[in-house]
């Protein structure tokens, strides 16, 4: 223990030297959303870089408190709507990748804007409960439980709905103006499976899909054409 | 604290008396799969009864160690296949409801038998990772991750596959004899959402489904007829 | 196990009878914010009532899925500001007591409105990280870490700040119109200690407070007069 | 939700009435040592009594903050040594049963006194790490890891040793005066398996024990006579 | 945050270069079996190598989803029995070391084969509950609880028994053919302490063992000769 | 998987070589106090050094069992009192930084000595419950709950008090000799916020503090002078 602390004195500088020569880039993927063991942990770019790997969140050794700035704890990227998809949905997600202060603290959030008549298709988050707050607009909103019972309603401005962890849920703007919602999650990486593309855009065996939905090969083929990026020409 | 222990002497008998007159039935739904704080907890029928509420697991005050029997810790109901569904699947699930020893210990399991050509349709368990062990047969097996990448393969007798928590997975018997599999879960109540009936058998708004899958009202109607129990005549 | 299920048939009705005669009221305080072991758990009023005990959240046996309604998962009480305190702050808190769907799902939230020049005094939540979203207005906002470093900034409409679990934080409306904020928490009961009243309104020994702050008996007496409800005449 | 709160008004008194007539005694065994969701939870004797069931800790609905006293959070029973066993060991354990304030807070402790030459035989706690602090005396102390490596040393007054969760550990007073130790645990119910009596005092099949230790039937019989209470005459 | 992402562009290649020159080998030991924060985490050999350190499981930065293969999620090494010990036991353990897909998902498993009359001696897993499924044969099986009560029975083909976390358990093949069992665990590294070698093969002080078991120095010496590898000549 | 193990053979030496040239110093901040997944984890100085970053605990890859020594699990630094502050308090804290064996095991402790009339000012630990054991002396001790109710009492030698996680607590030596206390925590890094310096020594906006306490600018200025290190001349 004592020798550990002595060693540190010299290695601190040597490391900086080393990094100057060989900018080390590695990323450790945190294994959980458990209780933090420090006040916070802002990933330290000195020790590498955060990579956005297909939605996976990676962490790095933390910055010292003295190297950490207030801006690490503030997210300003959700003041306006993001880019709209062809279903009329625009999502901006804040995670430790673009909002470092969230790292290890067990929360994240997203802003969703939905055009009139637009939808957020049936999807679920494998690792989080979601609280959705309607800042503007009027939406049909619901989720399905393990008994295949749907809990759906029309949410108005200022209302809040909870989608229990891991259950399929969905939204549709049924008002006459764009809707804006803020969803908060109790995980720094809730995960996401959008049912249509999970099923038809991933390459699951066609025969299995035919049997699962009772559809013909042609019908499944049409669905796959819609959602499979590799089938899109 | 001291008076608590005195009071107990008399209330023990009074309770039995009370229960003889008014067989109290209540159920507490345990809120988590966390670390146990006792060796085990066999629900005590003296204090009420376990109810099977649409797949929800409920717990009760525990039996004393001296009232607990070895049979509480043994499950004999999975020696043979269960009843087959119309997709050629038979599942026997062991949970604290029918295997009391599992209560509070954070595990459960299921036996699945699949007929030749039969499937276990795309589904997921919101609260558990699954380890599936092929005891007999040959199955196409896979899951989809958050990047819509499918990880699928053919499993043979004696092989084991892991389905990460909350991700959509599926099985199809592609061998020439019935297949038998044992799945174990790291939750006493993994939960289950079968995609086809979650989407089309729950009553989600038709317009939203049309937009989500790009299908016509007639096509969605046909799917709902297949999976919605209320639409089945 | 088998006899448990038989017993249930009759005890269900007997219980209703019993409850008709002796409306049993008890409350179980849930011990944690861990992973849920069921889809959700709406407290069942048939088995007693939820009591608001000085901010403590209590749970009850859950309703069946079939007895649960969509409105259990929706909160409409935060459409407008609550009642303002003398520091110009109005808070509406949503917890399982008034938003049953939150129960066991590990989240809660609050709406805070702050008058021009008003403050939310230094306080902390012992059991949750907070994500605060500025829906309207301009606020000075910050927290202090374990090294006594303050992280403070001015938040504008649409910005989001994170207050790490258990750290002292504070807000002041420095704009020229009322501010509206939504805070979400990763606990169904975050807890709250407002520093001024925790120290001076609780009855901590005066000598200890004098020594802790280096203030005179008279100065401490004045502070206690402000915050101790028993000293208020 | 609203009707729940109305109902409460009357049921509060009715409950007290009911309990006056039928002092209800039930006990809920808490399932975990997770994060608390309230400040604390002092079991409420109004709703029944705590039963000491062979070392199992049971909880009850909590008292209100206003009904809770400081003495619930203080333990005075460890000022002097307990009763000594025939191995020269005296243990006083503090758990929620005799120190209600510990309930739901994830900690407990024990005072151990060991006579000169006395031992605390090899044992382990299935659910907790232990920090042992030598208040008085000199002890041989150690534990064994999963590689069958022993970590043992001589501890003197004022020293502290950690026994990792679930690993076999042991103590022997090798000084010339009685030793006093305080062990704290990170579980409200760490559990205990004393190896000699677990193996030879529980009734494990004799043939299996012979094979496991390579001992004769006569030797195993002698060990069982020492540790099996039923074999003791 | 922004500069982090810029820096990444160049460091990615530099890292590969660096690793080509200095194949960095380090290993991070994961600290828990908590909820995953990503779909899965296949250790990335580019960033070092997994070392099998006396049964300790180590993790590494994860592979990208696109670099991950189905075979990472399948284990084929348990199709046949392993090598038998002198007690007639053959165990094949699957952990993240040889089944990378298990990493961070909170589960592992083992295949055990027991010869006629063979045993799995009393042992326990400090960090997991075990579900044991008898695929073939007939075994005496049991565990001991904290009250020294043994729960033992004869398991037949197709039966399943649960051994609660951290409690001593054991098996003996009492049938007339070899037995095959599959045990699954709710930890990626359950740990293992085999009582005979933990006590007599680790080097615990002889005097303490004599006092603990009431055996003579000669008897303890004989036991140590059997189990202590250093005493074996 | 197989190639991973081959690669290791060579990289082990290369790493040592690399480290001889470039003593790599990095530190990973552990994200939680969850269940360990190995017996223990002694940080390995070969892979870098532990840095004490403003009270933040950092971990490193673990040593092999064979490289680990008993002394890693023993702390001898709390035999005598530490250095006294101007409030008459001396604290020695044991954490993974100076007591490596604690790493990943979810516990830590501190020795506090208080002079006659000295105090431990109101403070709280964001991440742990504390059990305080009075080894010597007589202290006024208490905590405040979320309802601003103070639970305070006089503790004598041998008594133990529990301070629930995250709640403000305090101590004052009211006896006629120095007091010695041992506090144990159920986190390896409980964190600490001392109220006086958190509020007045961190740089919170003066206007906000005036409004929060109802004090004049001059009064707040005087308090800041006492606690703000930057204002101290």
TrEMBL record, chains A, B, C, D, E, F:
The keyword Secreted appears for this protein: yes
Keyword Disulfide bond: yes
Signal peptide: 1-31
Superkingdom: Eukaryota
Swiss-Prot/TrEMBL keywords: Apoplast, Disulfide bond, Glycoprotein, Manganese, Metal-binding, Secreted, Signal
PROSITE patterns: GERMIN
Main localization of the protein described in the UniProt heading: secreted
Compartments in which it is found: Secreted, Extracellular space, Apoplast
Name of the featured protein: Germin-like protein
Classification via Pfam families: Cupin_1
GO MF assignments: manganese ion binding
Any single GO BP term: plasmodesmata-mediated intercellular transport
UniProt family annotation: Belongs to the germin family.
GO cellular component: apoplast; plasmodesma
Organism the protein comes from: Lupinus albus (White lupine)
InterPro entries to which the protein is assigned, alphabetical: Cupin_1 (IPR006045), Germin (IPR001929), Germin_Mn-BS (IPR019780), RmlC-like_jellyroll (IPR014710), RmlC_Cupin_sf (IPR011051)
